[in-house]
Design brief:
- By secondary structure, the protein is of the alpha/beta class.
- It has helices at about 10-20, 25-35, 50-60, 80-90, 110-115, 125-135, 150-155, 160-170, 185-195, and strands spanning about 40-45, 70-75, 100-105, 120-125, 145-150, 175-180, 200-205.
- It has a seven-stranded parallel sheet with strand order 3-4-2-5-6-1-7, sandwiched between helices.
- Helix 2 (about 25-35) runs parallel beside helix 3 and helix 6 crosses helix 8.
- The radius of gyration is 16 Å and the shape is globular.
- It starts with 8 loop residues before the first helix and ends in a 7-residue tail after the last strand.
- Bound molecules: adenosine monophosphate.
- Adenosine monophosphate binds near residues 27, 46 and 87.
- Adenosine monophosphate binds near residues 47, 50, 52 and 209.
Length: about 210
Amino acid sequence: MFPDLGIDPEILKAIEKLGFEQPSPIQAEAIPVALSGRDVVGQSQTGSGKTMAFAIPGLQRINANDRAVQMLVMCPTRELAMQVCTEFHKLIPSRKNVLATPIYGGAGYDHQIRALKKGSQIVVGTPGRILDFMRRGTLKLGGLKLLVFDEADEMLDMGFRDEIQELVDELPVERQTILFSATITKQIRNLIENYTRDPETITIEQRTLT
Ligand code: AMP
């Protein structure tokens, strides 16, 4: 049950309002580990509830009084970035003064820059646009505490390896890292070795929520 996972009462209320009756298997396993601050590698598919498996603990670990970007979620496509941000927005009213912003290519800069300037602690985006904003100095990640790779295998398939490397090299070393991937290939194992520290690996057989 959700109340057994160590989730704050305010967030639990938001989950209840969404009508989620019980955590999916990936959520039941990943949420307590992520809340403990440990790195997580999760093997699971879309439809498994993987987004909430990192959104719930991530949201809980944000310091609402600090307007620095504290959590960065990298996604392979803008559709996924928007979808992930929508999941955050379902819970965010439970955390006063916390904001989540999607940033992705193929759209104008102004709107995204304005959203970032409001002091978004959570940024969800595609590697190319994240790097672009970092280079322009629009996105400052010196205060980052949590990095998430969502659909890491898709990101590599889309050719984002170099962007990912350049981007992660700029991030604080003292951070928590969560990586989700449907498959764990040799290349994904390289990412895990390079960018996580002593992660707990969670593997969930394909099973959809709907
Ligand atoms: P995902 O696998 O993260 O793409 O999530 C698939 C869908 O399941 C999303 O619409 C979520 O809002 C929904 N969902 C996530 N967790 C639960 C849950 N514990 N119970 C019911 N639906 C959920």
